[in-house]
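<context>
A single protein, sequence plus fold
<entry> Chain with its tokenised backbone below
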Amino acid sequence: PGDSEAGEMGLAAVPGRQAVFREGLEAAVRYARAVGCPRIHVMAGRVPLGTDRAAVAGEMETIFIENLRYAADLLSQEDMIGLLEPINNRITDPRYYLNTPHQAAAILEKVGRPNLKLQLDLFHCQIMDGNLSQNLETYFPLIGHIQIAQVPGRHEPDSPGELNFPYIFELLESLGYTGYVGCEYAPKGDTLEGLGWLRSYWESRGLQHGGTSKAAK
């Protein structure tokens, strides 16, 4: 993530921070290796203060692509995957460089490395673009990880909001998604009580707590 106290939120696309990015990536790989995690979120970073986004967009994309190719080579040695997550710049972070799955997909195509994937957080995607069904179908071949939170409160999936998560989960299953779904939300209260939505969802699908089939028992 870079230096959060200095206002950084990743470095992969930030001009003049290439060397620090690579040091941070190597440290992240060591941590990932230690805990057995095969995926690392390669954070793009923020548009520098005092600069116009459009004016630096080309330079930042060039730096991002160069750093991503370096990251892909390093991660391939560890059999790891790098993830690019678009973060909305309407609510969450106005200066974040990578904002939409369309932008991420275009950069992934230019980088051209199979061990770099899209980390699609449906909270950010809904705020920036909506059209979740088509976006999931269009970008499914690129997706390496899914994250969820209700919009606009960023709480549990069954909290009041815009997204129909039972439908989204069934769509992911129909597309053949077999990866994890990260609960990237802020619980409204107690964390364990807030997981009641998951127990209810499992029961609605005829599953025991933990996702095992009742029929199999």
